[in-house]
Amino acid sequence: MANHLSKKLKKTEWKITIVDQHEKHYYQPGFLFLPFDIYKEEQCFKTQKSYLPKSVKYIQTEIELIKAKEKKVTLADGNVLNYDLLIIATGARIAPEEVDGMMGAEWHKSVFDFYTFEGARNLRNKLRDWPGGKLVIHLTEMPIKCPVAPLEFAFLADAYFQKKGIRDKVEITYVTPLDGAFTKPKAASKLGHFLTDKKIDLVPDFAIASVDNENKKIVSWDDKEVDFDLLVTVPTNMGDDLIQKSGLGDDLNFVPTHKHTLQSKAHDDIFVIGDATNVPASKAGSVAHFQAEVLTENILLYMDDKPLKEAFDGHANCFVETGFNKAMLIDFNYDTEPLPGVFPFKGIGPMKLLEENKVNHWGKLAFRWIYWNMLMKGKKIPFITPQMQTAGKELEDKELVNA
Amino acid sequence: METIIANKQVELNEQGYMLDMTQWDEGIARAIAIEEGIELTDRHFDVLNFLRKEQEKGTALSIRKIGKSGVVGIKEFYALFPEGPLKKASRIAGISKPASCI
Q1: Domain A2-21+61-91+240-303 is of which CATH architecture?
Q2: Which CATH code, of 3.50.50.60, 3.30.1540.20, 3.40.50.150, 1.10.10.10, is assigned to A96-237?
Q3: Would A364 disulfide with which of A139, A257, A269, A319, CB 3.0-4.6 Å?
Q4: Residue A336 half-sphere exposure, CB side, CA atoms within 13 Å?
Q5: Chain B 81-100, CB below 8 Å of chain A: which residues?
Q6: At what angle do helices B85-92 and B26-35 cross, to 10 degrees?
Q7: What pLDDT, in 10s, does the model give residues A297-325?
Q8: Cβ-nearest to A142 among B68, B84, B98
Q9: Could you report the per-residue pLDDT of A142-159, keeping only the tens digit for each?
Q10: B21 contact A CB<8A
Q11: What interface predicted TM-score (ipTM) does this complex get?
């Protein structure tokens, strides 16, 4: 946003300040690859400051409080910033403390997350000399960042253990509170075979109540149990504690946000982007990128006292690694579920939607370069628009479009 | 697809979930509940109305959240809508299925 807005705003009228609570900017998609030694640690982060325009004031410190009524932000060092317009981009974090026993004696010993740098790195160290056993990949509750990541983890684990020659010693089980690994009608019918093909067992409708550290099992509210030797869990995801402290969040500390304009529902002078919002879009990096383009335009309209555009459609575009150097691509929005077809050019592709191929995989790896060199710098990705396009998608069954 | 439930025309997706929550009424709820093997009581409707209100607000629903709502405890939620209470209650409440993006 700083890169977008610094190009559009008159420096005599507006001053942009960024307060960043973290010194390092993590490339979170890399956390999927780190456990399997596909990425090295240093491929997962850079310093944030190097990506900001010179005209922007950068402050690296924790934030104490947002006082929305007073239009002030209090910093941990006691300084107070006044604002005319505030953009909240505080993201989402894992909250393993929300499930009884999850952060017990086995945390980061045989119970791991891979949504933090530390979790992914510790899991990599564990996997390097893990002899095999019951690997349980578990999803606590929705919404989560990158909802396809647990599935990708399962597929990559299957490939990883095959390459190591110990696949026959590893039982992989995928445990989800939803009714399947694929929950949207088209994806469920087209991709349902993936788990069986890869010999991954499925436990659906499992709402976790607790982790039993002593007996190494997870227990559901209706007393179902799943044993594990190694549990890779995606804990509850919540917004930053700052949002809760400032009285700006819902039950999960996400900021209630207008889903088409990205303006806060409670305060006209606050806009929200990325995982910090409660909008029913996927919590994915591509979503924040598409939101940024809409939000830039809306902020300029707001500054000119003009009506905002209801232009954000929930567009997300995500690669799904399926193992063995293949991936799928999905492209969807609030109203349209992921559909089969080709992307981005009708009749050409070269990427395939809802189908695995190698081009998609190279696309996923190339995305790291695109992220640092285009997304972070506020550049448009060629041929990919903020709003979802129907060209190239198989829409002949009209029912599916609205499903 | 368009179909008739409890003498009312409603639009369902291929998994049997209503596409337009405003088409819902108690008669439809009772008819869908019978398909799920459940006879609805006032207690069920307390939960269904809560789910509909949360859906209108755009809140993501989870079993843990429902347990914290003060409307129904998790054990009772399972007793009212056995085996997969959230997906069953959502279908009966005429709202979308709890889902991922794929």
Answers
A1: 3-Layer(bba) Sandwich (3.50)
A2: 3.50.50.60
A3: A319
A4: 22
A5: 82-84, 86-87, 97-100
A6: 140
A7: 999 999 999 999 999 999 999 999 999 99
A8: B98
A9: 999 999 999 999 999 999
A10: no
A11: 0.88
